[in-house]
Amino acid sequence: MTMRPPALDLPIIFLEVSILAQDVTILDRVNLALTAGAPTVLIGPNGAGKSTLLRVAMGLLPASRGLITWGGRESSPPTQRAILFQRPAMLRRSAAGNVRYALASAGVPRAERADRAAELLAQVGLEGLEQRPARRLSGGEQQRLALARALARNPDILFLDEPTASLDPAATKAIEDIVRSIAKRGMKVVMSTHDLGQAKRLAGDIVFMHRGRVVENSPAADFFSAPRTEEARKFIAGELLV
User: Fold this and answer.
1) CB–CB of 136/90 below 8 Å?
2) Is the pTM of this model over 0.90?
3) What dotted CATH number matches 12-236?
4) Local structure of 69: helix, strand or coil
5) Contacts of 1 (CB under 8 A, 6+ apart)
């Protein structure tokens, strides 16, 4: 197995980062370090700020207050970062055409795109579906296709926003297997999920969020066996947080 060289954009450091939208605080003085290693999984109730944190780490949203750095730099173009949204849009073309478009956007030479697209589709288990219109794929297949598009730029860091929301168990397992595979090769995965079972299966470390704050950040085994806060204990027990 070929390991990747260290990611230039890591660590991603949040220092007292807040995101404000009019009078609403979406992220509230977040201090966090996203470092190389096993997947980091963000958990917490709806509205906790998980999706916003991913977008800020990707570089899609500027901090209203505070500072974020990528590999020690206050500005870093997202050429080696990619993000998969919860409901990705499918282009009106074949599965392979979707991936070739992503490869073209990533600057891959035209002569290499067909072979590379085939490799990526095989990587996500869509071999044999190359010519099927993307919008005729099942929900799980579309999510895997979106993952192939995200991988087209060969990112060092991959952000996944609820990648298995609304998928059945078989489709969920397929996505989780891909996450494990790319993480083993050294790609840093940072993902949000509502599924505590998924967090236990995939996470190296857990970031637990509530009301825009990072409440706990610890190795997954420690978080689930000995949560430090009452909020985390309630969330793990399935109680509602308000």
Assistant:
1) no
2) yes
3) 3.40.50.300
4) strand
5) 184, 185
